[in-house]
Structure formats: C-alpha cells, structure tokens
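Quick one - inputs below.
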Amino acid sequence: MMARQNRLLSVSDLVVQHRRAGRRPVRAVAGVSLDLGAGEVLGLVGESGCGKSSLARAVCGLTAPTGGEILFDGRPMRPLGVRRRAPALTGVQMVFQDPYGSLNPRRRVSAQIADGIRAGAERGERGATKLTPGALLVRVGLPEDLADRYPQELSGGQRQRVAIARAVAARPRLLVGDEPISALDASAQAQVARMMRALAVESGAGLLFISHDLSVVRLIADRIAVMYLGRIVETGPTAEVWENPRHPYTRALLAAIPHPDGAGRLPVELPGDASDAAAPPSGCRFHPRCPLAFEGCDREEPQLAADGVACRLYSS
Amino acid sequence: MTEANHAERTRPQRAEDQRDILDIVGLTVALPGRTGTGTTVLHGVDLRLKPGGIHGLAGESGSGKTMTGLAVMGLLPPGARARGRVLLDGEDLLSLSAHELGAVRGRVVSMVFQDPSTCLHPMLTIGHQLTDHLRHHLKIGRKEARGRAADLLGRVRIPSPAEALSRYPHEFSGGMRQRVAIAAALACEPKVVIADEPTTGLDVTIQAGVLRLLRGLCDELGLAILLVTHDLGVMSAIADEVSVLKHGRVVESGPRARVLTAPRHGYTRSLLEALPGRTAT
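Output:
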C-alpha cells in the first residue's frame, strides 16, 4: 500500500450496491481495497455471485459506486454517463465474458478494431495512428484477412480474440478482463490468458484479470486476490497463495480443482451455496460454510490484515 | 459419500465379469451437407461401457463427442445417415423405428446436458416436470409419482426434497439446477446416462459436488455413464476409461491412468500440455 498516488489503479473501500424493486438492495461489493501498478497483472478469483464482475464494472466506470473511491492514474474514475467519456478515461479498456454480446454483429471486424485505434489516437497516444486492424489481428494470433469478416462468421474463440484486439487497439494503460476465457475450449483458455498477459505487460499496461478458474489465473497473475461474497478474503503473490493458501475458502477453492493426473482423485466439495449477498451472514461471511469455524466467527467480522488474510485463525 | 479415493476401492465384478451395457461398433455418421454430398462427422467409432463404469469421451469442440452421445440417444439430426451398430443392452438402436426409440429413450438411456436452465421448463415447478416424466413412462398415479420424485431429489442431495418439488427452476442455484436435471435423467432408472459437459460452467466447488454425485450413482446403483467433456481434469477425477476423439475418429482409448499419464497419441499429449492445471510432476 505504499505511495498510493504512484499506483495506476487504486481502489479503496469500494462499495457497489444494486437496487432491486421492492426488495432489499444487494451489496455486491462490500468494502474492497486493492492496488495495481503499471505492468502488473492482478488475478481476481471467486465463485459466481461473489461480486467480481460488479467490481470490474465499477473500475471501468460502467456502474457508479455506492461508496469508496476509485483512482485511475491518481484521478477519480468518473462513471459513464449519457455524454461521451473524457478521452483520458479511454485508457481503461475492458474485455467482456461473452464475445457474442460484446461485438456489434452488423459491423465488420476491421471497423470495430478501428474504433479502438481511434480512441487511442484521440487520447494522444504516440504510435496509435500507426496501428492497423490487420496488424492487431496478427498480434492476437488471427489471420489478417479476418478483418473483412462479420462477427457471425467467426468461432467463439476467434471472436474473443477480436474483442481483445479491439481493447488493445486503444493502447490501454489498464486492461480489465471480466471472465475473458470462460467461454473458450479448455485447450484455448491457457493460450488466450497468456496472450492477454503478454499484450498488457509488453505495453506497460496493468491487467486486472477476473476469473473463477484459479488454475488459469495462477499462470499469468503476479498477485492473486480471492473474493468471497463482496469482500477480499486473501491476497498475495501468486506462488505463495497457490502453494500455501491460508484462508479456509482459498484452501477449499484449490482442493476443488480436479487435476488431469490420471489418479482418479475425487475433488473435495465445499458444501452449501454462497449466501445471498442481500442478507450476508453475521460475522465472517464465510463462517456458515467454513470447516474450521470456531467460537466467535459468527459475530466478529475479520478484516484483511497486513499479511493478506482476513481470517480469525490468524489473528492473535 | 466416503472420503476414500475411489481408485482404491475394488470393483472387480463390474470391471471384468459383466457384459457391456453399451457397445458401439464402427459407428459412422454422415450429415447432409449443403452441397448434397454430405459430411462424415464420425468415422468408425468403437466404444464400450460396462455397468457401473464411466467412459470419458474427450476432444475439442467439433471433434464429434456430442454427436456420439446423440447417436446413443437416438437423437441424430434429421437426414443424418448412420452405419455400424449401437448396442444398448443387446439391442441395436440403429435398427429401431422412431416409435421404438421413444420407448428406449428416457427408460434405458437418458441424458444430462451442459446447461440445466435450457432443459428445465422455466414456468413449471420442478415437481410438475419430474412427475410428468414419471407418469408418462411408468404409467403410475399422481400421488405415487410425487413420492418417487421426492425420493429422486433426495438421491441427488437436494435439501428438503418435498418442498423443493413446488419450487421453480429459477429458485435454484446453477449447481442445484444441474442436480435437478440429473434427477430427471434418473427418473425411470435408466441403465446408461449420457452426460454432455455436465459440469462446464459451474464453479469448481460446485463441480466437485456434482462429480462426486455422478461417481456415487455409478458405484451405488450400477449406473453406466458416457461422460462427454473437454475437461481432462474432470475426466481424471471420475472416468474409468478414456477415449480421445479427433475429427470424428477415436485416436486413443484405454484406462484413465494410462491415457492421462502415458498418452500414446500425439494429439492426447498436446491436449494435456495445453492445460493450465497440469502439475509439473
């Protein structure tokens, strides 16, 4: 948490609440702080419904935060409104989960990538005007002649690569991927994830990579943050979290990953479903499912400590 | 379910002595093409499945995994031409009429799809859907069907099954919906279940529960499962035998441990090497 103004992205005490007609609002993100430096890759993992996407959308300014602060380059991230966004903020680009929804079906691939190039040029990025859609397609591992096609002529994997090319075309300083690989074949997932890392790190951009798949995230992230029901429960350097997970939830996530080692080992089940974010459990949010919960876990809410774990097992 | 490693449990009576419940011999399927010549999507696929066993079918999208499953269900697309034999409990499905297939489908073989929200009707209660199914196939009364439906939900470990019957699909989480879909597939006590990517899209913690459930059903009920998945980790967790498909051909087939630790075909090796979860050992 040193010298916060030097960080590319700095999120502090972020709260994102979704209102629902006639029902209690859902607090999807309930007080999250995180930092990301230039050229750094942060992997954010957690089960569906834990608030990963809400966090990503707030970081990109697609949802207005209910509380807390998001600083991009030291300046507050303004939520997207009716008007065109300030050119400076096009330095944040997002790759969405579903390339069938994020690409315009009625425009050619080249036109959509050209949008990205234009956004980068308007921001005054050096070299942005030299980029061509064809060259960008090659960068993401596609043949140049795909530029004249329409999205419907492409496979899911190709579309996602086009979506990545479009985001990279704008020369982002921060790239946010919200489950960018979950719609791809297992054999393509690792490849596309590695490519996103290379594209971001090469250009000195930061990458916030969101996924429910820890086994892919650990390949590309410098640091991992594990989210449960709107809060970060553990964070640390990737190798440390992977080899020595400390929070019971992180341990459960790792134990549930099936390994293709041929041993016929059944993965360990984490019983129960994540609780409703509209009515989170008292105390530690994980305590109803926690195999190690003890006296007091249902009353005291642990905070993320300096060592990167929010669990009462580790508080003296 | 016990915590014991299922690989360590012995199941000799199933592995060796029993005859195959499903025996696919030289299955070749051609789909009508736009040009009229047709495209052959399966080339002489051989595959066997014993009662209580899980046979995993691996391969990338478009390799013919799903088509093989559909052939066993008698659900090949209209105009498809199939050659070879699909022997299900001794009966060749390819020689049956559409009407005869209807009696087999659901009763002897049933299917679990990838996305449970597409196979459950969103506007009917779980109980309605399960009992309809039971009453149609087993010709039993409403009350009896309801009792059996509750038993089924209990078997797939849905909490308070009797109440769950009057709830709608959207009231369940993704993992629970997949359990309901499995319950529906089990309704008429089939001998073979085709599970097409049954855990793709579920969180790993939830996936672990569904995998344990499927393995348990095989061990306890002697159910045989044809597991179609591109996830070799899932395959490694519960399959006994593994076949790898590429462009409609089985390029490698054998016991799970052998195929995943000492693959003989280059394609199997490349699939394994592309995986992130591959441990360095």
